[in-house]
């Protein structure tokens, strides 16, 4: 197979169950990027634990972020990355990992919120200003994220772009980055709790998924019903094993249709669960606030009973902050 840079790449051997597990190709750029991201996240967790020993960064978020990085490694370095240029259905598995699975897990990990918690001024102030800036606000708007997601899915699969991806390594790298970015921009406003301006309600989250589902379904059905191999670069490989080129495209369309819709259904279930859990969570927060107010009355003696004017609320907040500051200083004095 001749690439766009004039380098001839040998076709990999036939894909078997054994090779699906054992075939790995470690890309130095991917490995370094993943290790740097993992180290930065771990450093942020250490900073938060050091500054707030009583409130360490939740381990579940770290597990989700690590799983997201693992999904990236599997998509690019495992047999999925080895056979992406040879079998279209394998490319489609990679596509789903990069545009849906990995971004969803990374969003749950909340790396931007961790950065804010771990940083101090002036870095903290600068990061917060950037995240609340107009360009970031526009890019993370759901009405912008859905079209970007649609352009990434349709533009790379229903055009001749795949020919460029197979023959040009730079185009392939750009495609991988596009999938990750498009997936994050689509999922972050609805399913992340990052410090951006957009925070969708559960019904809006469900609507966001419903808007995007036809994109994957349409693309998958078109590929599943095509009667010819749409990309000459796959035909030029003269692969002598596996499915025929047309069957390969049909399998890829099925992966897109069934796989993407399955992930979308998981997102809908997650949104429904958060919707149903919201009332109970609200009752729990009210109980915590009542307990906090009672503790203030006992410890500080400032919060009055049965009053709700704004000045008194400010006084309660100031007294509470003073109490927290004194509590934080007590261990140091010992």
Automatic annotation (TrEMBL):
**Pfam families attached here?**
Caa3_CtaG
Membrane-crossing residue ranges in chain numbering: 26-46, 58-83, 95-116, 136-156, 176-192, 204-225, 254-278
Question: Membrane topology type, per the record?
Answer: Multi-pass membrane protein
**Localization, UniProt:** Cell membrane
Q: Which domain of life is it from?
A: Bacteria
Q: Which UniProt keywords apply?
A: Cell membrane, Membrane, Transmembrane, Transmembrane helix
Its GO CC terms are: plasma membrane
Query: What is the protein name for this chain?
Result: Membrane protein
Native species: Actinocatenispora comari
List the top taxonomic levels of the source: Bacteria, Bacillati, Actinomycetota, Actinomycetes, Micromonosporales
């Amino acid at each position: 197979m001749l690439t766009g840079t004039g380098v001839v790449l040998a076709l990999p051997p036939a894909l078997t169950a054994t090779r699906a597990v054992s075939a790995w190709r470690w890309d130095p750029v991917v490995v370094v990027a993943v290790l740097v991201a993992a180290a930065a996240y771990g450093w942020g967790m250490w900073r938060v634990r050091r500054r707030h020993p009583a409130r360490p960064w939740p381990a579940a978020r770290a597990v989700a972020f690590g799983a997201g990085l693992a999904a990236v490694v599997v998509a690019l370095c495992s047999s999925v990355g080895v056979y992406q240029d040879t079998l279209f259905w394998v490319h489609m598995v990679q596509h789903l990992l990069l545009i849906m699975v990995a971004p969803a897990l990374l969003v749950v990990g909340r790396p931007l919120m961790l950065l804010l918690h771990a940083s101090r001024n002036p870095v903290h102030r600068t990061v917060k200003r950037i995240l609340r800036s107009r360009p970031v606000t526009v890019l993370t708007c759901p009405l912008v994220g859905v079209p970007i997601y649609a352009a990434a899915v349709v533009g790379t699969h229903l055009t001749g772009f795949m020919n460029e991806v197979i023959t040009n390594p730079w185009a392939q790298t750009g495609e991988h980055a596009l999938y990750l970015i498009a997936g994050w921009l689509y999922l972050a406003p609805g399913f992340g709790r990052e410090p951006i301006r957009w925070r969708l309600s559960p019904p809006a989250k469900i609507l966001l998924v419903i808007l995007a589902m036809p994109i994957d379904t349409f693309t998958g059905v078109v590929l599943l019903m095509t009667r010819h191999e749409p990309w000459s670069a796959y035909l030029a490989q003269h692969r002598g094993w596996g499915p025929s080129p047309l069957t390969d495209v049909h399998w890829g369309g099925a992966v897109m249709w069934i796989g993407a819709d399955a992930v979308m259904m998981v997102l809908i279930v997650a949104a429904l669960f958060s919707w149903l859990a919201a009332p109970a969570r609200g009752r729990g927060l009210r109980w915590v606030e009542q307990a906090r107010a009672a503790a203030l009355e006992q410890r500080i003696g400032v919060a009055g009973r049965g009053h709700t004017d704004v000045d008194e609320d400010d006084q309660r907040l100031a007294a509470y902050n003073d109490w927290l500051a004194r509590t934080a200083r007590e261990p140091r004095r010992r």
